[in-house]
Structure prediction request, 301 residues.
Amino acid sequence: MARSGKVTVVGAGFYGSTTAQRLAEYDVFETVVLTDIIEGKPEGLALDMNQSRPVEGFETKVVGVTTGTDGSGYEQTADSDIVVITAGLPRKPGMSRMDLIETNAKIVRQVAENVAKFSPEAVVIVVSNPLDEMTALAQLATGFPKNRVIGQAGMLDTARFSHFVAETLAVPVASVRTLTLGSHGDTMVPVPSRCTVDGKPLSDFLAADKVEELVVRTRNGGAEVVALLKTGSAYYAPSAAAARMARAVATDAGSVVTPTTLVSKPSMGRDWFMSSARPSGLPSTMSVSTTVLKMSYSASR
Prediction:
């Protein structure tokens, strides 16, 4: 199998390390770089992952790099084709994603500026919370074209919706097709009218009140996991979504994903970052309110 390209995952917590592992096991990249500010952690995880190569049968090399807040270490991420930003604090029980905005904005801004410095042609996939705001901040901080900074949200939310439908109906997940748009949070919009099971409308299988229960559960999908874990937040499903997005960009396979991306409405004088269905590869240029985004960026400096 031909391998090419370099993908960097920033943040070696559960989310980041699992994302790096999935990307390596795809065996489509030449190199996966995993970074973290905790000295030795990314190097140790990379060594562990590399030792799994004979077992799992992949050749992609994982490189661990300790980085500093002064930008040291980022030179080893240079010329990355794709950068996945997972850095930042996770939610705790009772917290909303927006509770993380002040702390994570400072982290994401610093990461984004180093990405721009060392990998100016990269496609950036943001997963740090609050997702929509951090995606917008990363675009402002990198100065990249708006079609090269996207967030992982709709793909995860859609996967959760599909799982809940399949679980409720006791059908294979492969038979379910759903769609979730909008913000990654309380205002997300699962779209039942676009949901099918074996090609038939969901309404043929479930009453409206039951469908609404699944919509609400999808909207609160992340919080449900956080409440059960009590420490930390979800990372298996989120990392699967982030890794699949990176693979879709790298291979340009034509698959349809729902990233958070720029949605511009000049007639309304406003821009948003929100989930919208796009084909894989470089997403088409699309723009939370510009005023809010600029406030977030200024506050992070």
